[in-house]
Specification:
mainly alpha; Four Helix Bundle (Hemerythrin (Met), subunit A); about 80% helix; binds protoporphyrin IX containing FE
């Protein structure tokens, strides 16, 4: 009897932890975005350096591929939107991501033409797109 009570108590304490973990666990989109982040950060460090252009072009190809992949996932925030508005929400997200891919392609074109200063300027626009995209489509972080 005693051990049953202990088990029940343990379950009551542990179960909510799992529920919370499922809610805040990284989505496939989070994983894809993390890979975009790695590529983006590398580019910010070396885009102005012509000696690194071959590596920067390979990195920007990764950024473009991951961004295209990101279009296919639905953001978690979709579940917070009323059912009647979910389709519109996802369509707007997909538009945002596609526009981002276009911006990435512009950076790539500048780099291919060895225009490093122009590529660096265009890369800055990606940061703005990230901020706008996160504001519109990412779930706000829960306060601890
Ligand atoms: C340079 C460009 C970008 C970078 C480096 C980036 C990076 C990240 C990272 C690291 C995360 C996961 C961690 C976190 O919560 O912060 C994330 C999540 C997310 N990002 Fe981005 N992001 C970029 C652009 C965008 C754009 C353009 C959009 C939308 C049009 C977007 C939409 C989202 C969404 C919706 C999530 C949450 C994932 C989910 O709901 O499952 N991101 N991003």
């Amino acid at each position: 009897m005693k051990s049953r009570t202990l088990l029940a108590t343990l379950l009551c304490c542990v179960a909510p932890l799992f529920t919370q973990a499922a809610d805040s666990s990284p989505s496939e989109l989070d994983d894809t975005m993390e890979q975009m982040n790695t590529a983006y950060r590398k580019l910010t460090r070396q885009i102005s350096n012509p000696a690194k252009n071959a590596d920067s072009l390979a990195t920007i190809a990764t950024l473009r591929e991951r961004s295209l992949e990101a279009v296919k996932f639905d953001p978690k925030r979709k579940a917070d939107v009323p059912a009647a508005e979910q389709e519109k929400f996802v369509a707007a997200y997909q538009e945002g991501m596609k526009h981002f891919v276009e911006q990435v392609t512009k950076v790539e074109a500048a780099l291919k033409a060895d225009k490093n200063a122009e590529a660096a300027e265009l890369l800055k626009a990606l940061k703005q797109a990230q901020e706008d995209g996160h504001k519109q489509f990412k779930r706000a972080k829960k306060k601890a």
